[in-house]
Specification:
The chain is α+β, with helices and mostly antiparallel strands. It has 2 domains: about 100 residues, OB fold (Dihydrolipoamide Acetyltransferase, E2P) (Beta Barrel); about 325 residues, 2-Layer Sandwich (BirA Bifunctional Protein, domain 2), CATH 3.30.930.10. It is about 30% helix and about 25% strand. The protein is built from 13 helices and 16 strands. Strands 7-10-11-16-15-14-13-12 form an 8-stranded mixed sheet. A 5-stranded mixed β-barrel has the order 2-3-4-6-5. Helix 4 crosses helix 7, helix 4 crosses helix 13 and helix 6 packs across helix 8. It is elongated, with a radius of gyration of 27 Å. The structure holds 4-amino-1,4-dioxobutan-2-aminium adenosine-5'-monophosphate and magnesium ion. The site of magnesium ion has 2 residues, from strand 15.
Amino acid sequence: MSVKMRVLEALQSEDPVSGALVRGWVRTRRDAKGFFFLELNDGSCLGSLQVIVDDGAAPEAELALAQNGAAVEVEGNLTASPGQGQKWELKASRLKLFGGADQEAYPLQKKRHSDEFLRGIAHLRARTNKYGAAFRIRSEVAFAIHTFFKTFGFHYVHTPIITGSDAEGAGEMFRVTTLPLGHTVKDKALPYDEDFFGRESNLTVSGQLEAECLALALGRVYTFGPTFRAENSNTARHAAEFWMIEPEAAFFDLNDNMELAENLTRAVAWHVLENCMEDLELFNRFVDTELLERVKHLAQGEYYRVSYREAIEILAKSGRKFEYAPSFGLDLQTEHERFLAEEHFKGPVTVYNYPKAIKSFYMRANDDGETVAAMDLLVPRIGELVGGSQREERLDVLQARMAELNLKQEDYWWFMDLRRFGSAPHSGFGLGFERLLMLVTGLANIRDVIPFPRTPRSLEF
Ligand code: 4AD
Ligand code: MG
């Protein structure tokens, strides 16, 4: 009887196991006389299992193909390893080759490859320690987020990916159409008459507006899905396709909202410290030696809050030469955000009450007539992690603001209806999932925390 095990279970075994059967991919192979060593990894954890394969474990031709990158099954006894560096090893008396890998052609060699090179082989890079760890952490963080919201009574809702509305009004949307390239509009026809939906449609930039509908029925909701932005900013923190977590809660004011964003960030930091230590240590060793300290600080340390007005004063008095001089009414640039989080507060800081002119139409007007109840949570190394606000729930105030901005109310008729029927104070925010992952892995480029990144002029397959 064979005992099927994943590498993780084999490595964590309490006792020797006879007839252990493990499947995975060969990471390295070392030949000796009459046997050879394999390091076998199956993605269940960072570690690989040392396997000692007898020369009689399979026909010679098959054994010859069990090289770096090959997929194999091995069976034998899991025994205490006399060697250094591992508790257990598998003495394989049987090997089955699923698929070999031509050593001349296989791009992943033993040497350390550059991130750049590995981005070019996104279909294979998850087989390296670094990307395997990044994508395992990605999975764990998603799980932590769902757990957090469940604990606090938030319902998980799904908002559309194809949408007829523009949530952010920034016009950076990808069009969805079935019309052929070069399609010309018939005389007197409307541009989208012949298109699939009979109207303009795009990929969503945010599920917020739809989440508001659901929050005003289900109370506390959140979305967690892909969002798309056609902004042509080729930075290390922007992707054209990224995932966003958007909670929206009825009867939450700006303070409740800030607290929710802080608690969510804290909970994720705790979760990875408790569940991903092996992978985190890899990043702490090879990517960012201050990572563990920073994640611990996120879990236990202080979170600060400062109004936009105070933030501008801090920046102006800092004596620092910024590329863009800070001044009331201008949006904070990444250099400002990072200065606040990294150097001034030395920790996460929420900036709130921004000037209305630089924020979206749906944010709640403050009594000062100048600012809105907006909030951005800024963190070291990244800058903006979260953007959100209390929403304008007063129909007349919203209508006046939309008129000022030349937004057509009929395009948002359903959004206005929410303010007509049972309107209530409510708040929400969007947290960029990849930016959160950059924060807890130390990886400095967004392209390295999403398996198949999409950025301007870059879409491999
Ligand atoms: O600040 P943003 O644009 O806010 C909204 O879209 C609101 N409708 C959210 C809401 O209130 N429900 O985006 C929210 C977050 C940012 O703070 C950032 O972390 C992330 O989404 N983000 C991006 N992440 C990666 N690539 C991009 N191009 C991003 N744009 C925004
Ligand atoms: Mg924002």
